[in-house]
Amino acid sequence: SISSDGAKVVFSSPGDSLPGSNSDGGLEVYLYSVDTTQYVQLTEADAGDSSQPVISGDGQWVAFASTADLTGNNSDGNREIFRIHTDTLVVEQITDSPNGASQLPAIDADGSRIAFESTADLTGDNADGSTEMFFYDADTQDVVQITSSTIGTSNFPSLDDGGVWIAFTSNAALVTGSTATEVLLYEVESGALEQISLGVAATRMAPSVSANGERVSYIGFTDSLALTLTVH
């Protein structure tokens, strides 16, 4: 994942990019500065893996998923969502659940909102452990559950720079009753949820919201394996 100005890149690796800092070969998160050509190891744990890092547009925050106990609040090794400040290297644990997995974070431009998918019961509304869509607001420190269903899954969030629009895929028949994999769009301020894909038999993936939130692109394919790229 790369910052908006292209100056910072984050990635996960089991390698020892800073010799001696990851001798155990665990999956850790690193930051690379294009200007200085220097690496910074953002996570360090003897047990557990840290992966799926995404960096905010301003390059100040990195969100990622991890099974490591990075703050002292994840001794059970569950997969949780964390964020870390790239200057202070202070780690914050966003989710905390004894079971279920939280993963695949997306982050806005200033790092204050993070969308992610989870099978955990983070708000008291996901007792069945289905894969639902959530977002975290750093200003209020609240985790909000966007979707709720007993069948189907909601996956692969994308967030615009302003943290207003969250696009994701779901086959949970959340709006129109379609059990095909559709693309949905959630407005954080109003809580409105709309289905933006066409509703014909197809599988859709890789939704991406533009920086200004005005367009969403996604890939789809039908049973005949005809691929299409759609911009809404």
Write up what this structure looks like.
With 232 residues, the chain is mostly beta strands. Helix content is 0%, strand content 42%. The protein has strands at residues 8-13, 28-33, 38-41, 50-55, 61-66, 80-85, 91-93, 102-107, 113-118, 132-137, 142-145, 154-159, 165-170, 182-187, 193-195, 203-209, 216-221, 227-231. It is globular, with a radius of gyration of 18 Å. The two termini are 23 Å apart. The model has no long low-confidence stretch (mean pLDDT 92).
Number of helices: 0
Number of E-state strands? 18
Please describe the biggest sheet, giving its number of strands, its sense, and whether it closes into a barrel. 4 strands, antiparallel
What's the overall average pLDDT, rounded? 92
Strand-residue proportion: 35-45%
The neighbouring-strand order within the major sheet is: 4-5-6-7
User: Are there runs of 5+ residues with pLDDT below 50, and where?
Assistant: none
What would you call the structural class? mainly beta
Task: Please bin the fraction of helical residues.
Answer: under 10%
The N- to C-terminal Cα distance equals: 23 Å
Q: Any idea what the radius of gyration is?
A: 18 Å
The 3D shape can be described as globular
N-to-C series of helices and strands: EEEEEEEEEEEEEEEEEE
